[in-house]
Amino acid sequence: MATWKEKVDDLVKELQQDRDELRVKAALGKAELREELAELDARLDDVKAKARVWADKADDEMDDLLDDAKEKTSGWMKELKEGYAKLRDRLDGDEKTG
């Protein structure tokens, strides 16, 4: 399963590819288009930085959630296993005395 960071990186790569294609076309085009492309480039850099921070945070929170889930479920499973063991011991004891 891809992490949020990997998904964000893939989206950023797609945006960068679009930008690179537009750069080639803009180099041949009007100055106005080059200015718009420069503005979009600045926004892309800003979005990349924000997205990386967000994706790292999401991955960290997901790791924390998974750790909590493992801890809780293993505790619950341990309780059940102990309960079954006690019941088995009681049944085994009844078979020996009965």
Brief descriptors of the model:
about 0% strand; rod-shaped; about 100 residues; mainly alpha; single chain
Description:
- Helices cover 93% and strands 0% of the residues.
- The chain is mainly α and 98 residues long.
- It has one domain (4-97).
- Helix 1 (4-27) packs antiparallel against helix 2.
- The longest helix is centred in the middle third of the chain and has 67 residues, at 31-97.
- The radius of gyration is 29 Å and the shape is rod-shaped.
- The two termini are 54 Å apart.
- The mean pLDDT is 85.
Ordered list of secondary-structure elements with their pairings:
Blueprint: H1 4-27, H2 31-97
The helix/strand class is mainly alpha
Largest sheet: none
Number of strands: 0
- The ordered string of helix (H) and strand (E) elements is HH
User: What's the number of domains?
Assistant: 1
Cα-atom radius of gyration: 29 Å
Low-pLDDT stretches: none
Number of helices: 2
Helix fraction bin? over 70%
Overall pLDDT confidence: 85
Our estimate of the beta-strand percent is under 5%
Q: Note the gap between the termini.
A: 54 Å
What is the 3D form? rod-shaped
What's this, in brief?
The chain has 98 residues and is mainly α.
